[in-house]
Amino acid sequence: MSGNEIDWKTHGVKVISGDHLDVNTPQTEGMNRAAAITRATAGAEKLWAGTVEIHADAKTGVHHHGDLESIIYILRGRARMRWGAALEYVCEAGPGDFIYVPPYVPHQEINASDDTALECVLIRSNQEPQVVNLDIPVVEDPEGLFWVDPIHADPNSKD
Fold first, then answer.
1. 14, 43, 110, 141: which could join 80 in a potential S-S bond, CB 3.0 to 4.6 Å?
2. 97 CB-side CA count, 13 A
3. pLDDT for 26-56, tens place per residue?
């Protein structure tokens, strides 16, 4: 190539078949991650994307992803997320919902269904496969905990 000419055929759009995802990526107990968009598969420099599946009635080990930002898009199933120094916060998400996980946040994904796999698309802000598995004791059982904010009121509240 000379000057500003770009070979768009080589440096353009890439399709990564769902049949050819790379499972050779850092794993956390209770989930299966598979990489789709990486430097090796698509030439990506700033993003990583893949899939994650959490089996029915399963939960992951507690972990964080260092300085990476993560976005989880729920395809099928119901996700219960716990986070915080003692996993004291909880929220739930279903198909069509997005979950944002900031850098260094200790978290745990839980499949809220006892008979359906939780299937998600996962996007991260960097190519580095950072997964830091943590040994954090759980402060309380997530059953009965609800995400309370101005939009999601506590269903047990008398207000």
1. 110
2. 15
3. 777 777 889 999 998 999 999 999 999 998 8
Cβ neighbours of residue 72 closer than 8 Å, sequence gap 6 or more: 52, 79, 93, 98, 99, 101, 109, 120, 121, 122
Whole-model pTM: value is 0.78
Domains annotated for the chain, with CATH where assigned, are 18-133 (2.60.120.10)
d(CA 113, CA 76): 11
pLDDT one-digit tens code per residue, 139-155:
555 555 444 444 444 54
Q: Which amino acid is at 149?
A: D
